[in-house]
């Protein structure tokens, strides 16, 4: 291992209180000054006012880079020219500490709102970044070729590139608020987080004064089609999908589920929703919120084990056994728990989703339960459902997913059958 000049000679315990110079955090306070900055630095430990550190799961790679001598542990980010391309907020929801408990609403603006604190030596890092991009998808190009989408030269170019504003959001958990969402005590949440991560963060149980946790998990990415400020205007029609990561389908086109076709259908709906009416659009705004929750947040290993169990069971892969096989392997049907998902919508100022491109009752219930109105629910068109994904779709519709058609009965669930393994 390379010698890093700044390598500590002994392990510094984080489990004592101390932190002279750590700014207090008043979650949900009206202004960034009153709320206080989130300081997750690993350099000046006295300044830290959170448990954990930045970059979610990538904090482990950062540690590896330090261990390998490739990164100086005292490196401070040069934030020159990194400011958001679009201003998001502040919105009234930002002043309600209960609306957002899993992200820092000021996370994109730290270089600006905590300029003085940064100049005074605090290592305050953005937990949100906002940029612009062109997205080019084969399904969108096909929609242009088949005449379903009409290029307008601004939001959608003639060669099928869509203009987007996108934001990456790292998780920042306010533990009392997270506990409340899950209906458990903060003490229990802290203890279970500590125990189930193999004791990774002792401060969860030793530092009850630290109420904010930067968990080592994936975050969220949002793609906005149209003007981001329109998201906060209920008079402007909003088409939106909240999508949970599925590497197999989203990236590699696996046909066992509907993730990619539903996502690309939603992107097409978002583009059309945001395009001007003269281009055949709906004159509104579109939003995709993408959460890193691979395989219902069970992870890909579990997901593939479940696939095998489904395909090899007696009678083959049938819709009536879809959830049972997941539960056998994982112990639960789903670990995504949509309780924290609406936070990102409140960050964007959303008060009404006119067209929700999702059939999930769990997502719908979480969104409406958080005080956001939902108009129409847009299902995935039948012709976009791959044959092998019919098992998933029928099982989910029988379990409460929204469908404008008939809910499959027990007999149909037995008959809906996927391919074997070979
Ligand atoms: Zn999938």
Automatic annotation (TrEMBL):
Gene3D superfamilies: GTP cyclohydrolase II
Documented EC number(s): 3.5.4.25
Gene Ontology biological process: riboflavin biosynthetic process
SUPFAM superfamilies: RibA-like
InterPro entries: GTP_CH_N, GTP_cyclohydro_II, RibA, RibA-like_sf
Positions of the GTP cyclohydrolase II domain: 232-378
Region Disordered: start-end pairs: 1-35
Pfam families for this protein: GTP_CH_N, GTP_cyclohydro2
GO molecular-function term, one example from the UniProt record: GTP binding
UniProt keyword list: GTP-binding, Hydrolase, Nucleotide-binding
Residue stretches making up the GTP cyclohydrolase N-terminal domain: 10-196
Protein name: GTP cyclohydrolase II
Species this chain originates from: Ramlibacter pinisoli
